[in-house]
Amino acid sequence: MVALVTDAIHPYSFGGREIRYHELYAHLTPHADLHVFTMRWWHGPRVRTEGGVTFHAISPLLPMYRHGVRSIWQALIFALACLRLLRQRFDVLNVDQIPFLHLLTLRVVATLRRKPLIATWHEVWGPEYWRYSTRVGWRPAWWIERLAMRAPDRIIAVSPETARRLRAELGERAAITIAPNGVDLDEVSRAAPHEQATDLVVVSRLMRHKGLDLLLAAIAELRERGRAITCRIIGDGPERDALREEAERLGIAEVVEFRHDVSEQKDVYALVKAGRVFAFPSTREGFGIAVLEAIACGVPVVTTSARDNLAQHLVRRSRRGIVCEHTLDAFAAALADALDGPADPAAVEPWVGEYALDSIAAHVVKAMLP
């Protein structure tokens, strides 16, 4: 039995890590009895089975964000709830890194049960993140993150850059396997562009560090220059109301479409293909699955060189990708350049095949089930 612990699951929560696990279920279940331990996202019994996966609600459903950043209260309650796994039988304990505190609890569980603890690591947040998100006591938060890095027996990093940052803390001998996020290229190819086209499109959780306020400001600036630009923002999150209010304040609400209702990947791909340029102003990404999906859809991507935006490494590989400074003028200019570029919607770059879901999933299975 494989016990997978994550506080957020698809389709109740929509983000890169939720999609990663959701798409891996079908590849894991032929090899192991898969049980997912999470918050109580659904109504009904605490334990339910769907698609060969057994889901266990080990904690109440609590808001994951407070004032736009991760809730310490939710992290603490979920960490304590993970002690319930002491009563479970499992052979491998795999845990999502976020929100850190539960890794310490599960280290105790794995030690007492004498089972391996494997963590999937999406990004190293680091002291700068904690200074930004924690008004007081950022040093203890950073120490907890560093301690959490040392809890697993093995780590699966979702990108080479994340692995490099982990080794900078843990040393070169740390047991780290790189298994990036994958894309179902067959489903991408089957998706037809949505009938309603747009100039700019972005898929993102609506959070402060995603930089969507910069995108709105760039749209306003370009429209002031006489460019009639439209935009579609796909996703949801704690900044939903603030971003809508900002679009109103900037006078661009009529040209920015917010889509909070998209949960199926085929619909995401259709909407992305309907865009001329994929805008991605995030300041912090451990990988950037939305960027990879946009490139797979044949849509050019504009992102920034913000230090913690590791998605820029994907964009630099793309023939039509643009990486600019993380400033309003640079981002607006890059968007304009991309929109003025030649249309080539059918061009899927060969290197994207490295991220085909089947091969990535096989690598993850091997890392989880050695």
Automatic annotation (TrEMBL):
Residues 15-186 form the Glycosyltransferase subfamily 4-like N-terminal domain. It comes from the Bacteria. Pfam families: Glyco_transf_4 (PF13439), Glycos_transf_1 (PF00534). GO terms for biological process: carbohydrate derivative biosynthetic process. Keywords: Glycosyltransferase, Transferase. Signal peptide: none annotated. Residues 195-343 form the Glycosyl transferase family domain. InterPro entries: Glyco_trans_1 (IPR001296), Glyco_trans_4-like_N (IPR028098), Glycosyltransferase_grp1 (IPR050194). The keyword Transferase applies. The keyword Cell membrane does not apply. GO terms for molecular function: hexosyltransferase activity. PANTHER family: SULFOQUINOVOSYL TRANSFERASE SQD2 (PTHR45947:SF3). This is Glycosyl transferase family 1. It comes from [Actinomadura] parvosata subsp. kistnae.
